[in-house]
Design a protein that fits this description.
Layout (H helix, E strand, L loop, with lengths): L31 E6 L9 E3 L2 E5 L4 E6 L5 E6 L9 E3 L2 E5 L4 E6 L5 E6 L9 E3 L2 E5 L4 E6 L5 E6 L9 E2 L3 E5 L4 E6 L5 E6 L9 E3 L2 E5 L4 E6 L5 E6 L9 E3 L2 E5 L5 E5 L5 E4 L11 E2 L3 E5 L4 E6 L5 E6 L9 E2 L4 E4 L4 E5 L1
Antiparallel strand pairs: 1-32, 2-3, 3-4, 4-5, 6-7, 7-8, 8-9, 10-11, 11-12, 12-13, 14-15, 15-16, 16-17, 18-19, 19-20, 20-21, 22-23, 23-24, 24-25, 26-27, 27-28, 28-29, 30-31, 31-32
Length: 346
């Protein structure tokens, strides 16, 4: 069952990176139910709302596809390449474009509701909480705009590119930057709360749980930061750069590395629960259910693991390049490929 509200607080909705769905599929898909090829490469992940799959492409279009048949319900032409994974809130779908604007489109009609212009390409996914939409740009601008109108509430300039999708709470908004820092700002005003410096760029979207901000850096280190102060509570040394946004479920945080491994750590203390065998470089975010974690590698494989033990459960290999996060329901697995294919596996 897909679930949509006005609280889409980070990349793919929440800490589980579910993309609008709640699924815990322990058996692999048996067949391709449908496949749609979009007119443009895809560098984003699909999301699901009320039986509709939304997918963006570098061809500058947002597509609304029927989840059962793949039939196109509508298409919105933005007029600029799109790398941003869509976000959902209420009756709207939001996404950023390379022209520096976030657009809000009606989920039913595909009509433009508003457009909020900023500076620099927007590869982040808009984060939504308490009537505001938050997003960063490659020009180093971080913005908060009104959910209903798109009007600017506040804006900040930083000395680096922001490709890290924010996590928003009632008080603070958290994100990383290419300058190696993780920032926490007041969600209402944009004022500085704290900054933590890592050893390299931070492009992953943080997860926030149990008073911790969890995020990896290209310095090969995964960090757990105190959500109030930014102090480092624990750190974990991985074997390569970390661009994969972590997923959290049941006290375990899961992420992929450029070294080709999936890591699962205890949220409480950072101890390694398990580490996968070598796959391929992983920069996409995993999705975590109650008992599984599933991730896509760069070279065509979608792999599900038992969350507790790391035992491989199933694998779907479609060939080509995959770098998105799948949407998993009880009936379907939805995923996209670099070449513009959207699949529904059943």
């Amino acid at each position: 069952m897909d679930q949509v509200s006005t609280r889409w607080v980070t990349l793919l909705a929440g800490n589980d990176r579910g993309g609008g769905a709640v699924g815990d599929r322990r058996e692999g898909p048996k067949q391709v139910v449908w496949k749609v090829t979009l007119p443009g490469a895809v560098r984003s992940s699909p999301v699901l709302a009320r039986g509709v799959v939304y997918a963006t492409s570098r061809g500058g279009r947002l597509h609304a596809l029927d989840g059962l048949t793949g039939h196109e319900r509508w298409v919105f032409a933005a007029g600029a390449p799109i790398h941003s994974t869509p976000s959902l809130a209420g009756a709207l779908v939001f996404f950023g474009c390379d022209d520096g604007a976030v657009r809000a489109v009606d989920q039913t009609s595909g009509q433009l509701a508003w457009k909020a212009q900023s500076e620099g390409a927007i590869w982040t996914s808009p984060s939504i909480h308490r009537g505001a939409v938050f997003f960063g740009t490659s020009g180093g601008v971080f913005n908060a705009v009104d959910l209903e109108t798109g009007k600017t509430r506040w804006s900040r300039q930083f000395d680096g590119q922001i490709h890290s999708t924010a996590f928003v709470t009632d008080q603070l908004v958290y994100f990383g930057c290419s300058n190696g820092r993780v920032y926490a700002l007041d969600a209402g005003t944009g004022a500085d709360a704290w900054t933590c410096e890592t050893g390299d760029g931070v492009t992953a979207a943080p997860a926030v749980t149990d008073g911790l901000v969890l995020v990896g850096s290209e310095d090969h280190v995964f960090y757990a930061l105190d959500a109030r102060s930014g102090a480092i509570r624990w750190r974990f040394q991985a074997g390569g750069g970390l661009a994969s946004s972590p997923a959290v479920s049941g006290g375990t945080v899961v992420f992929g590395g450029r070294d080709g491994h999936v890591y699962a750590l205890s949220v409480a203390d950072g101890r390694e629960a398990w580490k996968s065998a070598f796959m391929r470089p992983i920069t996409s975010a995993p999705v975590a259910g109650a008992s599984i974690a599933c991730v896509q590698t760069f070279y065509g494989a979608t792999q599900a693991f038992d969350l507790a033990s790391g035992t491989p459960l199933w694998r779907a290999n479609l060939g080509g390049s995959l770098n998105s996060t799948p949407v998993i329901t009880g009936d379907m697995v939805y995923l996209t490929t670099y070449f513009g294919d959207v699949y529904a596996l059943g």
